[in-house]
User: Fold this.
Amino acid sequence: MFHKTPDIAEVFERFGEGSEVVIRGWVYRIFKVGGKVFAWVRDHSGYIQVVFDKSYVASDWDAVEKLTRESSVEVKGVVRVDARAPGGKEIVASNLIVYGYSPPFPIKGGEDIEYLLNVRHLWLRSRHMIALLKIKHTAIQALRDWLVKDGWWETTPPILTGSAVEGGATLFEVKYFDKTAYLSQSAQLYLEVLIFPLNKVWALTPSFRAEKSRTRRHLSEYWHLEVEAAWYDMEDMMKVAEDMVSYAVAKILEERKEELKLLNRDTTKLEKALETPYPKITYDEAIQILQKKGFNLKWGDDYGADEEKALTEEFEVPFFVTHFPKHIKAFYMKEDPKRPEVVLGFDLLAPEGYGEIIGGSQREDDYEKLYNRIISEGLNYQDYEWYLDLRKYGSVPHSGFGLGVERLVMWVSGIDHIRDAIPFPRWRGRIYP
Ligand code: NSS
Assistant:
């Protein structure tokens, strides 16, 4: 039944005065002036004004009069160039087919966030959400393009897992037949396995974190792009991170101009992220900066969103924080041979208050050291036997990182909450729709 009709954007691009077109979409706005009915019809590509004039419309006029917002329609008509129409063109309709009328739409404008979350399945049709969905598409495509061009293998690690990567506190348990399994927090350990057959690997998967508190930047389910490579040290991996991020920002600036404009994004700020390398500070320096700014922190303390926000005031571009104290970081991070109290770990923080978008490290590749870390963290050694095997059979220096796709989208789009960087946000208390 599908016959191809032009996208609405194509009507603006390819169809001149007098050409006949058929378009399909949803009524976005409707108003009646002097016996005529004006409907703005939208599809994924944009919207166009359709003019229904009784004397031109061959189909039932009643169908036109009954049109409502969000009715799904097919319109046949003739293109007319008219400066008064949005975008400079309109369609003078000769025929209308209504696929589905819509009762009064539950979103009229001005509703609060809680309400909009409950009608999320309908709110996703808004121009705001369409812009964000498209920016995310372009972000993912750009990241993938970069990796493919640079020779990385895409892989498919599992979501149902037997052990924690990022600590037990945020694990979601699942009943797995007569056992307990967990939803993946990170594909990292599996990607570490896959570098032995494939050298340089990546995966884009959902990751799950049972975050207890609601914040602007935490979801309980998010999209995680993770990379892992044999023979790469921490510096090599930081270069991958900055090249990938700056490439994605460039693509979004180039291909999503309209959407960034609709979101009122100040793109001059974003353009600064095109230039690499990004600045690097150590954890020690970060602590000094924070102390000067009046934070009550000492060396060895972990820090959170407020501190990260304060650090971002020092930079106009994304920047790295490196060499964290061992005890605040995950068991798999390699200890710095020059300074055993710190690890070869890094975060990439986005400017303008956004904070961490990437977390990564060089991995501990020494069997004994890793074994001891697993034991001293109180982890169950049996759960990680297979992981330790990687340090037994041809261990190799290697590194990797994880990028939170919604964190990237949030920053690039300039939105103040992560919820609109994902169509169906989940956090504690919310699993609808
Ligand atoms: O916990 S991370 O910092 N690191 C890892 O999971 C590593 N195992 C990744 C790796 O090296 N392969 O998470 C990585 C990123 C982090 O920088 C955020 O951008 C994002 O994942 N992240 C989140 N996004 C949204 N919501 C939540 N709750 C969240 N947690 C992490």
